[in-house]
Design a protein that fits this description.
By secondary structure, the protein is mostly helical. The protein has two domains: 113 residues; 58 residues, no CATH class. Helix content is 57%, strand content 2%. It is built from nine helices and two strands; from the N terminus they run H-H-H-H-H-H-E-E-H-H-H. The chain has a two-stranded antiparallel ribbon with strand order 1-2.
Length: 205
């Protein structure tokens, strides 16, 4: 005998369920099975986290929603996208949805159009700009007349590694500032090394 699924205690999921039921009918749960229930409930919580989060936490929430969306069966994934409207609003949902779907997932978008009917246009789903491969590279000029050091290049990072406190002092740096900033600049060079690898040219390789 199959045990009954425990009722959800998540208020955000309950609100989303009512929202979806209103638009898809009382039997909207029928196509769902297995992992669909917990994945959808967790997705609703992740969507709420996106709405409440700062820039860093929103990026993490998007990753969580992408993973949970992939757990859902393809024919019920539109329910998750509908829940974003429930926990936020139409405009916000239109901003988030393109970040979650693979560009070739026409089935989910079509199901979403069918479920929302004439309301689909309220989403105003736009295009997501491509994520830059790297951060903005830092170019340093350590003293007047010095050659610029582009930390996105191996040559620039190598040149910075050869700069010591004595060199900075000889070029007008205060000794305390030289000690403080040299370590910071070396850490910055290390971050660029992780981002840009063995790039030898300027800017994005």
């Amino acid at each position: 005998m199959r045990s009954e699924r425990a009722p959800s205690k998540s208020e955000v999921f309950k609100r989303s369920a009512e929202f979806i039921k209103y638009r898809c009918g009382p039997r909207w749960l029928a196509p769902m099975s297995g992992n669909d229930y917990p994945a959808l409930e967790a997705f609703c919580s992740a969507a709420e986290s996106w709405c409440r989060g700062d820039t860093h936490n929103r990026a993490l929430a998007v990753q969580a929603m992408q993973a949970l969306l992939s757990i859902l069966q393809p024919h019920v994934r539109h329910f998750a996208l509908m829940s974003i409207v429930s926990v936020s609003d139409w405009e916000i949902a239109g901003q988030v949805i393109p970040r979650l779907l693979p560009p070739d997932d026409d089935v989910t978008l079509q199901n979403l159009r069918t479920a929302f009917g004439g309301e689909y246009s309220r989403l105003r789903i736009g295009q997501v700009p491509p994520t830059p491969r790297h951060g903005v590279p830092v170019v340093l000029t350590l003293w007047s007349g010095a050659a610029p050091l582009d930390l996105s290049t191996t040559a620039g990072r190598q040149a910075l590694s050869e700069v010591d406190i004595q060199t900075l002092r000889e070029n007008g740096w205060n000794v305390l500032k030289a000690c403080e900033w040299l370590g910071v600049l070396q850490q910055l060079a290390g971050c660029h090394s992780e981002d840009y690898g063995q790039s030898t040219g300027g800017g994005t390789p």
